Q: What sequence folds into this?
């Protein structure tokens, strides 16, 4: 193990980690918004809305994330929304794919709220929007958090696929440095440790929140 | 969208289908064996073995599958494991699968009611008999849905083999994109192939669930 080399490449890898974190944060925000939207469409009164949401979930869950990123980069960003940068295209692809999973998580959270709560809110004369916002979602969040965060670990890991459209994030830089230094062991293991630390932080947050969110009665 | 173009380019991309299926099937096979090993180690009486299995699982779940694939491609040759391109891809994907299927198998074995063990002991069953007649049939039923969930993820993950230039369908589609300057058509072609393969897996899951359903 060449510790001197690790000390030399570590700052470079941390710089690339910033891009990884940008992809992660952007992808997570897009995924959450898309997920919430699709989950609410699944609950809609209108058949067309429910159907559209179901097709979205079906399609994006069957697609490899890499193919979704290619669709965002080669089709959406190149032909349709030409103002998108490669970073934005990658975030769009990551978010669109992960959104389908977030939608299922949010939907099962909404469905887990006891039917009595819906009826009680209605009996109090709440509008559907107010009922969703004040009664259903706050209770659903408790159920959603554990699966939401385990899916979030996967979103973090999926950012590595952005390397396929030429973004030099942590994984892309590791491959370049492996080739240029001829020391793949040191480079790849350092990158693996950085990912492991980031994933573990999310897992620890999940464990902490799971303990905190137990209903106190 | 240019349907004629899709028809024209389809045979070229179609050639990658056996590679995609091969990557998937072999890595699922070796991944299941590896997962079984990890699960048995995890349930071992020896603390050291349990720790090894837990450590591997923690690392494997904490790093991206693409990094696992890169480790198979760039790090393993340095420590004397040199394979052809395709088997290296299988190795990387199988390592990923082993970690996730190991958790499924462990949960399946642990999910069988401990009362079953006591009952079979009271009936005078041997350990092997108990495993084969009691644990495996009941555990399998618990394992089927998450096992297939991981298998579907694995099928989709075979696409990352394109990044290390294994000529499966995603790489072939990418080549069409760069040589023919069209992108929607080849991507929709492979999207259709992934959807079809995914649907086959869903039917397989239904079949297995039916075969192992409770008969009372």
A:
């Amino acid at each position: 193990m060449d510790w001197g080399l690790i000390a030399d490449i570590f700052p470079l890898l941390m710089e690339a980690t910033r891009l990884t974190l940008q992809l992660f944060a952007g992808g997570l925000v897009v995924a959450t918004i898309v997920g919430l939207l699709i989950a609410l469409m699944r609950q809609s009164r209108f058949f067309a809305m429910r159907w559209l949401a179901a097709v979205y979930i079906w399609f994006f869950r069957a697609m490899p994330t890499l193919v979704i990123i290619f669709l965002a980069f080669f089709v959406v960003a190149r032909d349709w929304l030409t103002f998108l940068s490669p970073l934005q295209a990658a975030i769009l692809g990551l978010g669109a794919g992960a959104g389908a999973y977030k939608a299922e998580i949010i939907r099962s959270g909404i469905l887990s709220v006891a039917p009595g709560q819906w009826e009680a809110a209605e009996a109090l004369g709440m509008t559907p929007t107010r009922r969703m916002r004040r009664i259903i979602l706050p209770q659903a969040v408790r159920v959603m958090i554990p699966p939401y965060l385990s899916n979030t670990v996967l979103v973090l890991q999926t950012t590595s696929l952005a390397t396929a459209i030429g973004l030099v994030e942590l994984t892309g830089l590791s491959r370049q440095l492996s080739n240029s230094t001829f020391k793949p062991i040191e480079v790849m293991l350092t990158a693996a440790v950085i990912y492991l630390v980031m994933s573990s932080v999310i897992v620890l947050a999940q464990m902490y929140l799971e303990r905190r969110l137990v209903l106190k009665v | 969208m240019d349907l004629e173009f899709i028809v024209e380019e389809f045979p070229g991309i179609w050639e990658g289908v056996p590679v995609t299926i091969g990557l998937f099937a072999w890595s699922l096979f070796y991944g299941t064996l590896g997962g079984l090993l990890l699960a048995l180690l995890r349930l071992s009486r020896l603390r050291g073995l349990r720790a090894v299995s837990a450590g591997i699982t923690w690392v494997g779940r904490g790093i991206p599958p693409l990094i696992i694939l890169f480790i198979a491609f760039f790090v393993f040759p340095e420590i004397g494991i040199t394979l052809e391109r395709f088997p290296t891809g299988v190795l990387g994907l199988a390592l990923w699968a082993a970690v996730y299927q190991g958790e499924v198998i462990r949960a399946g074995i642990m999910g069988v009611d401990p009362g079953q063990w006591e009952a079979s002991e009271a009936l005078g069953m041997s350990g092997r008999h108990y495993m084969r007649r009691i644990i495996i049939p009941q555990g399998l039923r618990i394992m089927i849905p998450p096992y297939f969930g991981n298998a579907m993820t694995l099928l989709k993950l075979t696409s990352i083999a394109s990044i290390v230039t294994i000529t499966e369908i995603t790489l072939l589609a990418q080549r069409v994109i760069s040589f023919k300057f069209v992108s929607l058509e080849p991507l929709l072609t492979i999207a259709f192939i992934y959807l079809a393969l995914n649907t086959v897996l869903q039917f397989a899951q239904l079949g297995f669930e039916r075969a192992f359903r409770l008969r009372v």
About this structure: The mean pLDDT of chain A is 93. The first helix of chain A runs from residue 3 to 42.
